[in-house]
Amino acid sequence: MCGSMAGKYRFLSVLCVFALAPVQGFADDAAGSVYDAFDGAAAVDLEAQAPGTVIAAIRDALRHNPQLRIAEARQDAAKSERFRALGGFLPDVEATASYTDDRWRSDGLEVVGMSEGTTLGVTAVQPLFQGLSAFNRFRAARARVSQSELALLSTMQQTALDAARAHAGVILARKIVDHRIENMGLVSQQLNISEKRTEAGAQSRTGVEQARMRLAQAQVDLGEARTRLAQQEAAFIRITGRMPAAEMTEDMSDLADVFSSLEDALAIAREGNPAIAAAESAAKAARHDKSAATGAIAPQLTLEGSYFKRYGEDPLIASQADEEYQLVARMRMPLFRQGNNIANVRSANATVAQQEAQTTATLLAVEEIVNRTWRQLEQAKARRVAAESGIEAARQSVRGLDMEYSAGQRSVIDVLDGQRDLVIAQINASQADYEVRVTQYELAAATGTIFDAFGETSGLN
């Protein structure tokens, strides 16, 4: 899985320069690390990106999101555990020093090999065979390092998705406010016309009151739109750590055009989604842990060496010097250790089953997202086309109603209804465009291509 992802995420490598500046490649890791793709990536000045673009929002979110720091800390912890596992192949070396004085023990105590004075010694134990438990523990630790890398990448992709959604949400909320303000102007203009026509005796007072009622409703709708805008801007600040730019640049790219079909999107998601790869790495680590637990029951072979040098009562004068050394090959066969070995094997078996089930659950969840977003995207595109057609029809209707109203053929309520339909059509079009945009982001994130998609559409690759 990791090897198939090596060609992706070039844009991520550039963002990492700004977001996680001590992240480095891992030359000592297993081949195919996702960070292999970082080497040789073209340097791009993301600081030159306008603050109102979606790429700038992603850049700021990657800098700001504390979840990335948590994922990075877990990655460091996994590397430390890998180093600890490597120690299972290294010798255990210990230095000792002792001093013995005959005045501090009884006359009847005889200790073989011990004389009055100072003794210095070094002992070393080198494991030769441990039932492959150390080897499998190291492989499990290495798999967990890969899992932590993929988990970090998954967190970064989710952060990018959140930032892109927040960017689109602010743009939508601002559009709706603009539509409501435009509607306010139209309703106010209609109220003025109605008052003048009433004063001239061309219509009754009822038309004025109807226009006033619509104006009050327009004010309420504008207030609700501004409240939603405040909520979207607050979410944008929480995600990116800064205020939205005064001028937000709408993202017009088509992130879904790289998929020829739903089956193609599902295949790419199975290969490219880092959450699936992280779950597979966790299952792989669990299987190595199981092998290590099984190996702990096998015979243990070690090579043990020791060297001692004794000095007389005065350690500076080696008048009573004596040396002793030995080299012993020792095999131990664990028979019964309070049931710990058996319990460890059973626990490891259960963990393997749990992690494999988690991998399946993650795969099914990703496939569900891809299926759902693919169908939602198709429906959203159809709604956008219909809504755009409805806007022009509504504008033509309003112009016709105004002319007929001026000619006395229509009432003020007819004109107000036409204006309301126009505003609704504009809001529906903006909402449909937002749904298309966000659904594309979700599909790109689910397939693991969100950074590649933004890189290609922004000319960063």
Q: What is the count of β-strands?
A: 4
**How does the major sheet shape up?**
4 strands, antiparallel
Our measurement of the CA-to-CA distance between the termini, rounded to an integer number of angstroms, reads 23 Å
Strand order of the largest sheet: 1-2-3-4
pLDDT averaged over residues: 80
Give the overall shape, derived from the CA principal axes. elongated
CA radius of gyration: 36 Å
Global structural class: alpha+beta
Amount of beta strand:
5-15%
Annotated CATH topology of the largest domain: Outer membrane efflux proteins (OEP)
pLDDT below 50 for ≥5 consecutive residues: which ranges? 1-48, 314-318, 456-461
Domain count, please report it: 2
Provide a descriptive summary of the structure in words.
Belongs to the outer membrane factor (OMF) (TC 1.B.17) family. This is TolC family protein. Residues 208-235 form a coiled coil. The protein has 461 residues and is an alpha+beta fold. The chain folds into two domains: 3-90 and 130-297 and 334-457, Up-down Bundle (Outer membrane efflux proteins (OEP)); 91-129 and 298-333, Outer membrane efflux proteins (OEP) (Single Sheet). Helices cover 62% and strands 10% of the residues. The protein is built from ten helices and four strands; from the N terminus they run H-H-H-E-E-H-H-H-H-E-E-H-H-H. It has helices at residues 10-19, 54-64, 66-86, 133-199, 205-240, 262-272, 274-295, 340-406, 412-446, 450-457; strands spanning 92-100, 117-129, 300-311, 322-332. A four-stranded antiparallel β-sheet has the order 1-2-3-4, with no helix packed on it. Helix 6 (262-272) packs across helix 8 (340-406). The two termini are 23 Å apart. The model is unreliable at 1-48, 314-318 and 456-461 (pLDDT under 50).
